[in-house]
Amino acid sequence: MHLAYPAVLAVLLFCTGLYGVLARRNAILVLMSVELMLNAVNLNLVAFDVWLRDALHAGQALTLFTIAIAAAEIGIGLAIVLMVHRNRGTSDIDKLRDNAETHDAETAGHDGTPGAGRTAGSGATAGPDEKAEAAA
Amino acid sequence: MTLAAGHGFLSPTGVEIAFLLVGIVTLGAAVITVTTKQLVHAALWLVVALGGLAVEYLLLTAEFIAWVQVLIYVGSVVVLLLFGLMLTRAPIGRSPDADSGNRPAALAVAVAAAAALIWVVIDAFRATWIDLDGPAQGSTKVSGAILFRHWVLPFEALSVLLLAALVGAIVLSRRDREREGGN
Protein backbone atom coordinates (compact mmCIF):
# COMPACT_ATOMS: atom_id res chain seq x y z
CA MET A 1 0.00 0.00 0.00
CA HIS A 2 1.24 3.45 -0.84
CA LEU A 3 2.15 5.34 2.34
CA ALA A 4 0.43 8.45 1.04
CA TYR A 5 -3.04 6.94 1.55
CA PRO A 6 -2.97 6.75 5.36
CA ALA A 7 -0.84 9.89 5.65
CA VAL A 8 -3.24 12.01 3.57
CA LEU A 9 -6.27 10.58 5.35
CA ALA A 10 -4.65 11.44 8.70
CA VAL A 11 -3.94 14.99 7.50
CA LEU A 12 -7.52 15.49 6.36
CA LEU A 13 -8.97 14.09 9.59
CA PHE A 14 -6.65 16.30 11.63
CA CYS A 15 -7.70 19.40 9.73
CA THR A 16 -11.37 18.44 10.10
CA GLY A 17 -10.83 18.26 13.84
CA LEU A 18 -8.97 21.55 13.75
CA TYR A 19 -11.90 23.21 12.04
CA GLY A 20 -14.25 21.73 14.62
CA VAL A 21 -12.19 22.96 17.54
CA LEU A 22 -12.06 26.46 16.13
CA ALA A 23 -15.61 26.74 14.84
CA ARG A 24 -17.76 24.93 17.39
CA ARG A 25 -19.40 26.69 20.27
CA ASN A 26 -20.63 23.86 22.49
CA ALA A 27 -17.82 22.54 24.70
CA ILE A 28 -18.78 18.89 24.13
CA LEU A 29 -18.60 19.35 20.36
CA VAL A 30 -15.12 20.80 20.85
CA LEU A 31 -14.21 17.65 22.78
CA MET A 32 -15.48 15.53 19.87
CA SER A 33 -13.26 17.47 17.49
CA VAL A 34 -10.29 16.90 19.78
CA GLU A 35 -11.03 13.18 19.58
CA LEU A 36 -10.91 13.39 15.79
CA MET A 37 -7.50 15.06 15.96
CA LEU A 38 -6.18 12.40 18.34
CA ASN A 39 -7.44 9.67 16.03
CA ALA A 40 -5.64 11.22 13.08
CA VAL A 41 -2.42 11.05 15.06
CA ASN A 42 -3.15 7.42 15.93
CA LEU A 43 -3.60 6.54 12.27
CA ASN A 44 -0.25 8.11 11.48
CA LEU A 45 1.43 6.19 14.27
CA VAL A 46 0.03 2.86 13.11
CA ALA A 47 0.84 3.49 9.44
CA PHE A 48 4.44 4.46 10.12
CA ASP A 49 4.88 1.57 12.53
CA VAL A 50 3.74 -0.89 9.88
CA TRP A 51 5.88 0.83 7.26
CA LEU A 52 9.08 0.81 9.32
CA ARG A 53 8.55 -2.72 10.66
CA ASP A 54 9.83 -1.59 14.01
CA ALA A 55 11.10 -4.41 16.17
CA LEU A 56 9.80 -2.76 19.34
CA HIS A 57 6.52 -1.71 17.64
CA ALA A 58 6.83 1.68 19.27
CA GLY A 59 4.10 3.12 17.07
CA GLN A 60 1.49 0.59 18.12
CA ALA A 61 2.46 0.82 21.78
CA LEU A 62 2.19 4.61 21.58
CA THR A 63 -1.18 4.27 19.87
CA LEU A 64 -2.49 2.16 22.74
CA PHE A 65 -1.16 4.71 25.22
CA THR A 66 -2.74 7.56 23.26
CA ILE A 67 -6.10 5.78 23.27
CA ALA A 68 -5.91 5.31 27.04
CA ILE A 69 -4.88 8.93 27.60
CA ALA A 70 -7.72 10.07 25.33
CA ALA A 71 -10.16 8.10 27.47
CA ALA A 72 -8.79 9.79 30.59
CA GLU A 73 -8.94 13.16 28.87
CA ILE A 74 -12.55 12.75 27.82
CA GLY A 75 -13.53 11.75 31.36
CA ILE A 76 -11.85 14.75 32.97
CA GLY A 77 -13.04 17.08 30.21
CA LEU A 78 -16.65 16.00 30.56
CA ALA A 79 -16.46 16.36 34.34
CA ILE A 80 -15.19 19.92 33.90
CA VAL A 81 -17.87 20.71 31.33
CA LEU A 82 -20.58 19.31 33.61
CA MET A 83 -19.29 21.37 36.54
CA VAL A 84 -19.25 24.52 34.43
CA HIS A 85 -22.75 23.75 33.25
CA ARG A 86 -23.92 23.23 36.84
CA ASN A 87 -22.36 26.44 38.08
CA ARG A 88 -23.24 28.74 35.22
CA GLY A 89 -26.10 27.06 33.38
CA THR A 90 -24.30 26.92 30.04
CA SER A 91 -21.70 24.86 28.25
CA ASP A 92 -21.21 27.53 25.62
CA ILE A 93 -17.55 28.44 25.47
CA ASP A 94 -18.28 31.83 23.94
CA LYS A 95 -20.04 32.89 27.11
CA LEU A 96 -17.25 31.92 29.51
CA ARG A 97 -15.44 35.22 29.28
CA ASP A 98 -14.28 35.88 32.82
CA ASN A 99 -10.67 36.09 31.75
CA ALA A 100 -11.36 38.08 28.60
CA GLU A 101 -9.53 41.34 28.10
CA THR A 102 -12.17 43.98 28.45
CA HIS A 103 -11.74 47.64 27.73
CA ASP A 104 -11.93 48.46 31.43
CA ALA A 105 -9.06 46.15 32.24
CA GLU A 106 -6.90 47.84 29.62
CA THR A 107 -7.57 51.30 30.98
CA ALA A 108 -6.86 50.04 34.49
CA GLY A 109 -3.56 48.74 33.20
CA HIS A 110 -2.66 52.10 31.70
CA ASP A 111 -3.61 54.01 34.82
CA GLY A 112 -1.54 51.68 36.94
CA THR A 113 -4.15 51.40 39.65
CA PRO A 114 -4.19 47.82 40.89
CA GLY A 115 -7.36 46.33 42.20
CA ALA A 116 -9.75 48.57 40.33
CA GLY A 117 -13.03 46.68 40.49
CA ARG A 118 -14.34 47.86 37.15
CA THR A 119 -14.57 44.57 35.36
CA ALA A 120 -17.76 43.13 34.04
CA GLY A 121 -17.12 39.50 34.85
CA SER A 122 -18.38 38.20 38.16
CA GLY A 123 -15.61 35.76 38.91
CA ALA A 124 -12.73 37.89 37.59
CA THR A 125 -11.06 38.94 40.78
CA ALA A 126 -7.42 38.18 40.11
CA GLY A 127 -7.39 38.53 36.34
CA PRO A 128 -7.38 42.33 35.90
CA ASP A 129 -4.66 42.83 38.51
CA GLU A 130 -2.36 40.42 36.75
CA LYS A 131 -3.03 42.11 33.45
CA ALA A 132 -2.38 45.52 35.03
CA GLU A 133 0.97 44.33 36.33
CA ALA A 134 1.85 42.82 33.00
CA ALA A 135 1.00 46.00 31.16
CA ALA A 136 2.77 48.34 33.57
CA MET B 1 10.17 -0.77 3.26
CA THR B 2 10.15 -1.36 -0.41
CA LEU B 3 10.99 1.10 -3.12
CA ALA B 4 9.25 1.85 -6.35
CA ALA B 5 10.11 -1.38 -8.10
CA GLY B 6 7.01 -3.39 -8.89
CA HIS B 7 4.53 -0.70 -7.86
CA GLY B 8 2.52 1.64 -9.99
CA PHE B 9 0.75 4.88 -9.29
CA LEU B 10 -2.13 4.14 -11.60
CA SER B 11 -2.70 0.51 -10.68
CA PRO B 12 -3.90 0.47 -7.09
CA THR B 13 -4.14 -2.82 -5.33
CA GLY B 14 -7.29 -4.14 -3.74
CA VAL B 15 -6.17 -3.09 -0.28
CA GLU B 16 -5.57 0.43 -1.51
CA ILE B 17 -9.02 0.64 -3.08
CA ALA B 18 -10.63 -0.63 0.11
CA PHE B 19 -8.59 1.83 2.15
CA LEU B 20 -9.63 4.66 -0.13
CA LEU B 21 -13.34 3.81 0.04
CA VAL B 22 -13.37 3.39 3.81
CA GLY B 23 -11.32 6.57 4.09
CA ILE B 24 -13.89 8.53 2.09
CA VAL B 25 -16.66 7.27 4.39
CA THR B 26 -14.57 8.11 7.47
CA LEU B 27 -13.73 11.59 6.24
CA GLY B 28 -17.33 12.29 5.26
CA ALA B 29 -18.57 11.22 8.69
CA ALA B 30 -15.91 13.40 10.33
CA VAL B 31 -16.94 16.41 8.25
CA ILE B 32 -20.60 15.86 9.15
CA THR B 33 -19.56 15.54 12.80
CA VAL B 34 -18.02 18.99 12.83
CA THR B 35 -20.64 20.70 10.70
CA THR B 36 -24.03 19.29 11.69
CA LYS B 37 -26.39 21.47 13.67
CA GLN B 38 -27.87 18.60 15.64
CA LEU B 39 -25.70 17.82 18.62
CA VAL B 40 -26.77 14.21 19.12
CA HIS B 41 -26.30 13.49 15.43
CA ALA B 42 -22.75 14.79 15.74
CA ALA B 43 -22.01 12.14 18.37
CA LEU B 44 -23.60 9.43 16.22
CA TRP B 45 -21.62 10.43 13.13
CA LEU B 46 -18.52 10.33 15.31
CA VAL B 47 -19.28 6.62 15.80
CA VAL B 48 -19.13 6.14 12.02
CA ALA B 49 -15.85 8.03 11.77
CA LEU B 50 -14.20 6.09 14.60
CA GLY B 51 -15.52 2.78 13.30
CA GLY B 52 -14.14 3.58 9.87
CA LEU B 53 -10.77 4.25 11.46
CA ALA B 54 -10.96 0.83 13.12
CA VAL B 55 -11.45 -0.70 9.68
CA GLU B 56 -8.42 1.26 8.45
CA TYR B 57 -6.37 -0.22 11.28
CA LEU B 58 -7.52 -3.67 10.22
CA LEU B 59 -6.43 -2.95 6.64
CA LEU B 60 -3.04 -1.90 8.00
CA THR B 61 -2.85 -5.32 9.76
CA ALA B 62 -3.03 -3.78 13.23
CA GLU B 63 -5.78 -6.04 14.54
CA PHE B 64 -5.37 -5.49 18.25
CA ILE B 65 -5.50 -1.71 17.92
CA ALA B 66 -8.60 -2.00 15.76
CA TRP B 67 -10.46 -3.92 18.46
CA VAL B 68 -9.18 -1.58 21.17
CA GLN B 69 -10.46 1.30 19.04
CA VAL B 70 -13.89 -0.31 18.79
CA LEU B 71 -13.98 -1.09 22.51
CA ILE B 72 -12.74 2.19 23.91
CA TYR B 73 -13.77 4.82 21.39
CA VAL B 74 -17.01 3.47 20.01
CA GLY B 75 -17.88 1.70 23.23
CA SER B 76 -17.05 4.16 25.94
CA VAL B 77 -15.95 7.55 24.66
CA VAL B 78 -19.00 8.10 22.47
CA VAL B 79 -21.28 6.88 25.25
CA LEU B 80 -19.59 9.33 27.61
CA LEU B 81 -20.08 12.11 25.07
CA LEU B 82 -23.76 11.23 24.69
CA PHE B 83 -24.17 11.26 28.47
CA GLY B 84 -22.44 14.62 28.57
CA LEU B 85 -24.77 16.00 25.92
CA MET B 86 -27.81 14.79 27.83
CA LEU B 87 -26.56 16.01 31.21
CA THR B 88 -25.90 19.49 29.84
CA ARG B 89 -29.47 19.52 28.46
CA ALA B 90 -28.42 19.78 24.84
CA PRO B 91 -31.35 20.52 22.56
CA ILE B 92 -32.58 17.50 20.63
CA GLY B 93 -33.52 19.25 17.41
CA ARG B 94 -31.51 21.68 15.34
CA SER B 95 -29.65 24.22 17.42
CA PRO B 96 -28.83 27.31 15.37
CA ASP B 97 -26.00 28.42 17.64
CA ALA B 98 -23.88 25.27 17.36
CA ASP B 99 -21.23 27.15 15.42
CA SER B 100 -19.57 30.27 16.72
CA GLY B 101 -19.02 33.43 14.76
CA ASN B 102 -15.50 32.66 13.66
CA ARG B 103 -16.44 29.97 11.16
CA PRO B 104 -14.77 31.61 8.14
CA ALA B 105 -11.54 32.07 10.05
CA ALA B 106 -11.66 28.45 11.24
CA LEU B 107 -12.34 27.25 7.70
CA ALA B 108 -9.43 29.29 6.36
CA VAL B 109 -7.06 27.95 9.00
CA ALA B 110 -8.16 24.35 8.41
CA VAL B 111 -7.89 24.57 4.61
CA ALA B 112 -4.49 26.25 4.81
CA ALA B 113 -3.21 23.63 7.24
CA ALA B 114 -4.60 20.80 5.09
CA ALA B 115 -3.01 22.20 1.92
CA ALA B 116 0.38 22.71 3.53
CA LEU B 117 0.42 19.32 5.25
CA ILE B 118 -0.77 17.40 2.18
CA TRP B 119 1.87 19.10 0.07
CA VAL B 120 4.60 18.19 2.54
CA VAL B 121 3.38 14.60 3.00
CA ILE B 122 3.00 13.88 -0.70
CA ASP B 123 6.37 15.44 -1.43
CA ALA B 124 8.08 13.45 1.31
CA PHE B 125 6.52 10.01 0.77
CA ARG B 126 5.95 10.01 -2.97
CA ALA B 127 7.92 6.82 -3.55
CA THR B 128 7.22 4.94 -0.35
CA TRP B 129 5.21 1.77 -0.11
CA ILE B 130 4.09 -0.19 2.90
CA ASP B 131 4.79 -3.88 2.62
CA LEU B 132 1.71 -5.56 4.01
CA ASP B 133 2.74 -9.09 3.11
CA GLY B 134 3.89 -11.62 5.63
CA PRO B 135 2.54 -12.16 9.15
CA ALA B 136 0.32 -9.50 10.65
CA GLN B 137 2.37 -6.94 12.49
CA GLY B 138 -0.26 -5.97 14.99
CA SER B 139 -1.84 -9.26 15.99
CA THR B 140 -2.79 -9.73 19.60
CA LYS B 141 0.15 -12.04 20.20
CA VAL B 142 2.68 -9.56 18.87
CA SER B 143 1.09 -6.64 20.67
CA GLY B 144 0.99 -8.48 23.97
CA ALA B 145 4.58 -9.56 23.63
CA ILE B 146 5.95 -6.11 22.90
CA LEU B 147 3.69 -4.41 25.41
CA PHE B 148 4.68 -6.61 28.33
CA ARG B 149 8.27 -7.15 27.30
CA HIS B 150 9.47 -3.72 26.24
CA TRP B 151 6.81 -1.27 27.37
CA VAL B 152 5.94 -2.49 30.85
CA LEU B 153 7.04 0.62 32.74
CA PRO B 154 5.05 3.08 30.58
CA PHE B 155 2.11 0.69 30.78
CA GLU B 156 2.15 0.72 34.59
CA ALA B 157 2.63 4.48 34.70
CA LEU B 158 -0.36 4.79 32.38
CA SER B 159 -2.49 2.70 34.71
CA VAL B 160 -1.63 5.09 37.55
CA LEU B 161 -2.56 8.01 35.29
CA LEU B 162 -5.91 6.39 34.49
CA LEU B 163 -6.58 5.89 38.20
CA ALA B 164 -5.74 9.52 38.90
CA ALA B 165 -8.01 10.63 36.06
CA LEU B 166 -10.87 8.49 37.40
CA VAL B 167 -10.49 9.88 40.90
CA GLY B 168 -10.26 13.39 39.50
CA ALA B 169 -13.41 12.95 37.45
CA ILE B 170 -15.31 11.63 40.47
CA VAL B 171 -14.10 14.48 42.68
CA LEU B 172 -14.97 17.06 40.05
CA SER B 173 -18.42 15.76 39.27
CA ARG B 174 -19.85 14.96 42.69
CA ARG B 175 -22.01 17.49 44.44
CA ASP B 176 -20.19 18.94 47.42
CA ARG B 177 -22.83 18.99 50.12
CA GLU B 178 -20.43 19.16 53.06
CA ARG B 179 -18.89 22.41 51.92
CA GLU B 180 -22.27 24.00 51.30
CA GLY B 181 -23.59 22.95 54.72
CA GLY B 182 -20.59 23.11 57.05
CA ASN B 183 -18.26 25.84 55.94
UniProtKB/TrEMBL annotation, chain A:
Q: Where in the cell is it found?
A: Cell membrane; Membrane
Q: Does the keyword Thylakoid apply?
A: no
Q: What is the protein's major site of localization?
A: membrane
Identify the Pfam families for this entry: Oxidored_q2
Record key words, sorted: Cell membrane, Membrane, NAD, Quinone, Translocase, Transmembrane, Transmembrane helix, Transport
Give me the Gene Ontology terms describing cellular component: NADH dehydrogenase complex; plasma membrane
Compositional bias segments (type: Basic and acidic residues): 95-109
Cite the EC number.
7.1.1.-
- Give me the segments passing through the membrane: 61-84
Q: Does the keyword Membrane apply?
A: yes
BP GO terms, sorted: ATP synthesis coupled electron transport
Q: Where is this region: Disordered?
A: 95-136
Q: Name one GO molecular function term.
A: quinone binding
Q: How does it sit in the membrane?
A: Multi-pass membrane protein
Q: InterPro entries of this UniProt entry? A: NADH_UbQ_OxRdtase_chain4L/K, NUOK/Mnh_C1-like
Catalysed transformations (reactions): a quinone + NADH + 5 H(+)(in) = a quinol + NAD(+) + 4 H(+)(out)
Q: Which family does the record assign?
A: Belongs to the complex I subunit 4L family.
Quaternary structure per UniProt? Answer: NDH-1 is composed of 14 different subunits. Subunits NuoA, H, J, K, L, M, N constitute the membrane sector of the complex.
What PANTHER family does UniProt report for this protein, alphabetically?
Answer: NADH-UBIQUINONE OXIDOREDUCTASE CHAIN 4L (PTHR11434:SF16), NADH-UBIQUINONE OXIDOREDUCTASE SUBUNIT ND4L (PTHR11434)
NCBIfam families per the record?
A: PRK05715.1-2
According to its UniProt entry, the function of this protein is described as: NDH-1 shuttles electrons from NADH, via FMN and iron-sulfur (Fe-S) centers, to quinones in the respiratory chain. The immediate electron acceptor for the enzyme in this species is believed to be a menaquinone. Couples the redox reaction to proton translocation (for every two electrons transferred, four hydrogen ions are translocated across the cytoplasmic membrane), and thus conserves the redox energy in a proton gradient.
Output this protein's name.
NADH-quinone oxidoreductase subunit K
- Please report the organism this UniProt entry assigns to the protein: Streptomyces lavendofoliae
TrEMBL record, chain B:
Annotated membrane-spanning segments are 17-35, 42-60, 66-85, 105-122, 151-172
Which Pfam families does its entry note? Answer: Oxidored_q3
Which keywords has UniProt assigned to this entry? Answer: Cell membrane, Membrane, NAD, Quinone, Transmembrane, Transmembrane helix
Give, as one word, the top-level EC class: translocase
Known EC number(s)? 7.1.1.-
GO cellular component assignments = plasma membrane
Q: Which residues fall in a coiled-coil region?
A: none
Give membrane topology per the record: Multi-pass membrane protein
What InterPro entries does the record tag this protein with?
NADH_UbQ/plastoQ_OxRdtase_su6 (IPR001457), Nuo/plastoQ_OxRdtase_6_NuoJ (IPR042106)
According to the UniProt entry, its GO molecular function terms are: NADH dehydrogenase (ubiquinone) activity; quinone binding
State the reactions this protein catalyses: a quinone + NADH + 5 H(+)(in) = a quinol + NAD(+) + 4 H(+)(out)
Q: So which residues are the signal peptide here?
A: none
Compartment(s) where it occurs, according to its Swiss-Prot or TrEMBL record: Cell membrane
Tell me, what does this protein do in biology?
A: NDH-1 shuttles electrons from NADH, via FMN and iron-sulfur (Fe-S) centers, to quinones in the respiratory chain. Couples the redox reaction to proton translocation (for every two electrons transferred, four hydrogen ions are translocated across the cytoplasmic membrane), and thus conserves the redox energy in a proton gradient.
- Which family, according to UniProt? Belongs to the complex I subunit 6 family.
UniProt protein name:
NADH-quinone oxidoreductase subunit J
Give the originating organism.
Answer: Streptomyces lavendofoliae
